[in-house]
Design goal:
This is Peptidase aspartic putative domain-containing protein. This protein is mainly beta and about 240 residues long. It contains two helices and 16 strands.
């Protein structure tokens, strides 16, 4: 998993609260039959563990006029004392590893284990992680839980999305304020990604096109055309 690259191309659960208006409330909608997942751009990358090398891929976010919304969710993560804390997770089907930000392990007081990993991304850029942690994550909406090992990195990605996205109030979402740029605490990779997917798919319109049902809630994953008059520099995440 590489670090953010500039100027290149690339959270007790609450009761569900209106999907994106003017559509009907989520509770009135029947989950659609499973449809083909959106194609995700995934350049080749490599994870090197000790002396072994194996292929891997990562998601790409292109922050130009058409902004890609990467799927994020608020999940619960367990501390060393057994308490649960909310954390913002990036759901990445193209990552071989799960990653947690160093600041999050400090908050959770998780005991690190020596575990050397080299993560390669775009341009074969290597990042070295010396430790990993093991803990549980769970959903805010149901009894789903999983125990995972996370590689510890100083930083996972720049705040996502890259720019504020105007939208009406949303509810029943895995991350209700997905449209406000916020830091990423966890990256959940392919080990868990496909097991959290559910059957529901909702097509909303031209701006926010899809909601995808997961065990963590409904996630937004699509494109958003930014105001062409915005004066922002290109930031890209891989």
């Amino acid at each position: 998993m590489g670090t953010p690259i500039e100027n290149t191309t690339l959270t007790q659960p609450h009761a569900p609260t209106p999907l994106l208006q003017p559509h009907a409330p989520l509770a009135q909608m029947q989950p659609h039959a499973t449809t083909a997942l959106m194609q995700l751009h995934a350049p080749d990358t490599t994870l090197q563990h000790a002396s072994q090398t194996s292929p891997s891929t990562v998601l790409v976010s292109n922050a130009n006029k058409q902004q890609i919304l990467l799927s994020t969710a608020i999940v619960r993560i367990q501390s060393a004392s057994g308490k649960w804390m909310n954390a913002r997770a990036l759901l990445n089907a193209g990552s071989e590893v799960n990653i947690v930000a160093h600041r999050q392990t400090s908050l959770l007081q998780l005991e690190p284990k020596q575990d050397h990993n080299y993560i390669s991304s775009i341009g074969n850029t290597l990042k070295h992680s010396q430790v990993s942690v093991h803990t549980n994550i769970s959903s805010r909406y149901n009894n789903y839980s999983a125990d995972l090992t996370f590689i510890v990195m100083d930083k996972i990605a720049v705040p996502l999305p890259h720019n504020y996205i105007p939208t009406q109030q949303a509810k029943s979402l895995a991350y209700p304020t997905f449209f406000i740029p916020s830091s990423i605490d966890l990256l959940i990779g392919a080990e868990l990604f496909y097991s959290i997917l559910q059957t529901g798919r909702l097509k909303l319109g031209s701006s926010l096109r899809f909601l995808i049902e997961t065990t963590f809630g409904w996630v937004v994953s699509s494109s958003f055309v930014r105001d062409t008059h915005e004066h922002t520099s290109n930031k890209n995440t891989c």
